[in-house]
Specification:
alpha+beta, single chain, 5 helices, signal, globular, five-stranded antiparallel sheet
Length: 328
């Protein structure tokens, strides 16, 4: 079975080499000088040769996966990056996962060790589309980073491959978070010759598994911020918070997230509400041989609600916090 999957993945890679198609009729000849300049500026390039509808660039630092029902839209060669766009008939998440698996056979891997543990609240446009957080991929010996992005499009999915070149700069794969490379250090930096740890990677190594919480139906989620470290007042900490806009009432949003946390191994305590209206729920989970304690908080913001068409959208701010962060 494994051999069959490897053969299939290799065929997806090899097939990508045959995607270069003849260019469509010259788009630029039908534009005014101002329109041409505006289009090139938007694409971040200085000449029409860098804007290649229906074509791959002359040199590509990775082999393009050939996804089911794939059509090459084109490419853009920018000074420090290369963009390749294709259309596929499969769903966005299937396209993204398949592309990354195929690239893994070529040696591409997560550029940052902690990339898979950073998200807790899944973002959403409110129309059923999930916004995937995109982390860079790297390959030892290749001076750059590759990001694969898949979003819904008519008849399937539009997949974008963006390769950013680090040519002339020091880079490692995975990323050098210890800052041991002298080329990355300023002589006068207070951190020179000091070890720097990735807090989230160390938390994950201790057995921590952060929950990935889907958005409530018809809800728009906007990330606001996050922080984490190893030296909070009581040890390691992780905090993330988002803005939720929903036609659902705040207590329905609270129920949704508590249910999602429970199905992911976190046991909620009794919700408590302050006189200001903030809901706070303690959470516990057994992970890595120890009990983890966290807090889920939700604050209704009725004064910031909006109306879209005939629909009233409530605003609530929510937070997931593990441990206690430093006070600022």
């Amino acid at each position: 079975m494994i051999s069959s999957l490897r053969i299939l993945a290799m065929s997806l890679l090899v097939g990508g080499a045959a995607l270069a198609q003849p260019a469509s009729p010259d788009l630029f000849s039908r534009l005014t000088e101002a329109e041409r300049a505006l289009l090139l500026a938007t694409a971040g390039v200085g000449s029409p040769e860098a804007f290649r509808p229906g074509q791959l660039p002359p040199a590509l630092p990775f082999r393009l996966p050939n996804l089911p029902g794939q059509t090459l839209i084109g490419s853009v060669v920018q000074p420090w990056s290369t963009l390749v766009v294709v259309h596929t008939t499969v769903a966005p998440e299937a396209a993204r996962v398949t592309a990354r698996k195929v690239l893994a056979l070529e040696g591409w891997r997560d550029q940052y060790e902690s990339a898979t543990t950073e998200g807790v609240f899944q973002s959403s446009f409110g129309n059923g589309t999930v916004v995937q957080a995109f982390s860079g991929q790297c390959r030892p010996g290749v001076p750059g980073s590759l990001v694969v992005q898949a979003i819904p499009a008519a008849g399937g999915t539009r997949v974008t491959y963006r390769y950013s070149s680090f040519e002339g700069a020091s880079s490692t794969c995975p990323a050098n978070l210890e800052w041991t490379d002298p080329a990355q250090q300023n002589f006068y930096s207070p951190g020179r010759n000091q070890s720097v740890r990735d807090p989230l990677a160390e938390l994950r190594a201790s057995g921590l598994v952060l929950p990935s919480l889907p958005a409530p139906a018809g809800t728009r989620i906007s990330p606001s911020g996050s922080s984490y470290g190893l030296e909070g007042p009581n040890g390691p900490f992780y905090t993330t918070y988002v803005i939720v806009r929903s036609a659902q009432a705040p207590d329905a949003v609270l129920t949704h997230y508590l249910t999602a946390l429970r199905t992911r191994g976190w046991t909620p305590g009794v919700p408590r509400r302050s006189k200001e209206g903030e809901w706070t729920v303690t959470l516990t989970a057994q992970q890595g041989g120890k009990e983890r304690r966290a807090t889920f908080s939700l604050m209704p913001r009725p004064e910031l609600g909006t109306t879209e068409g005939v629909t009233r959208l409530n605003r609530v701010d929510v937070r997931f916090a593990l441990g206690q962060g430093p006070g600022y």
